[in-house]
Amino acid sequence: MRKLPVGLQSFRKIIEDGYVYADKTREIHRLLQDGSYYFLSRPRRFGKSLLLDTMRELFLGNRELFEGLWIAGPESDYGFEPYPVVRIDMTQMSIKDAEALESSLTDYMLKQAQAENVEIDSGISSDVFRALIETLAAKHGRRVVVLVDEYDKPIVDHVDAPEKAQANREVLGNFYGILKGQDANLHFVFLTGVSKFTKLSLFSKLNNLNDITLRAPYANICGITEAEFDALFSAEFDAATRERVFGWYDGFSWDGETRVFNPFSLLSYLRDREFNSYWYSTGTPTFLAKVFEARPAEYADIQGVTVTERMLDSHDIENAPLVSLLFQTGFLTVTAADRKAEPPRYILGFPNTEVSSSLAELFLAAAPQIADPYGSALINGLQDALDEGRPEGIAAPLEGLYASIPYELHIGAEAFYHALFLAVMQFLGFRVQGEVSVARGRIDGVLERPNGRTYVIEFKYTAEASEEALDAALGAAFSQIADREYAARYAGTGREVYRLGIAVAGRGKVGIVWEKMRERSGPC
Prior knowledge:
Rossmann fold; alpha/beta; 20 helices; 16 strands; Trna Endonuclease, Chain: A, domain 1
């Protein structure tokens, strides 16, 4: 196998040292043909920094690095003329407060001026930035390229401290705002970050930015597509292993059609050959845990939700809905899109096993204390019952799960118990999807096992703890599956399909009723 660039962000190092590289130069060329000012949001560790560094080398005219890539081939008309480039990496700034950010930005611009052998006066960061652009354009006789990495870091890192976030936002607003008046001196501007929320307030003065985050032509500009995977790695895997790799790490999408791998997770797996949550282990926003702690019942509703683009970027991150937060942080992705709607609508869901199990772990750690969710009895009890086609066997493990919740933390709501059920299943690595839309409603959950069994699940809760109330809830759950034909979409798939009603009564009494094809059990 060729060398794997795990965590590398230097295009030059990757090319000169012979690392694997998924060629994105065709997409970069398309950007140059379509416009000059762009904004792109992608989750952390998704290749944004490498993309910007590739652009930097391209605009500097370093053709020798691109030999063998699309943009240096016969289909491209790119001339490799050199342009002056200002590369701004917000991860290198001091962001503890507005004063430190202002000083750091000024020093950063002055160092770039020194590296370019031009002299500019010190001052506030926006004035120094303007002077650097104007001076470089005059020196080189060419317009300037500006590349900004992690534009929003000084804000999102202070989401738990709104006053600091707002102060940093004001500094950045003034800093980025000078780009609007520099059009005559700018050849190309590209900004990336993890969040779309702050874009509206930061770039109110820069209203000519083309946001390509959800634009189909650029859905694969970061990440590794199936075609790229097959070209680079397919010879190393049999069909079963390949399917498992895709299930664990593929599935991110921003147009509902193009699927890509998180490159950091995929490359880490290829290095170690172990299925682990590599992306999640590199760090998770602490504010998500606080949201789950305050609103645990909302976990049941995060899959299958339909949103518009404005719903995803029209809120400040401090006050955003949970689904928007999860989309921005990479835990939800676009699973389908209706671009004919006005405005276009996007359905969100988990991209893969790594993400769903990792978010479930975060939720279980933040939600009301659950005793031993890692326990072998719970894991073995649930897995064995589902794999053996006897779903009644999950009743006892679920009762044990709910019984572990302290009395004062119980929430008398169906969504709460439903959320815990989904989270535990996802945490254990089960392939389970919540809130699946079908013609006549939304299925509470669909759980698929590798051995070919599919469980179509309806979940009910009753505050009354009697057997009569539990039986009534079970009847309602099962009738809803049958009457609304929830299982019909799985007919003809070659899988064993089970209708499964789950009811919870009082503070955790669990009942199960199920039917497999034409075989049906009673309540248990």
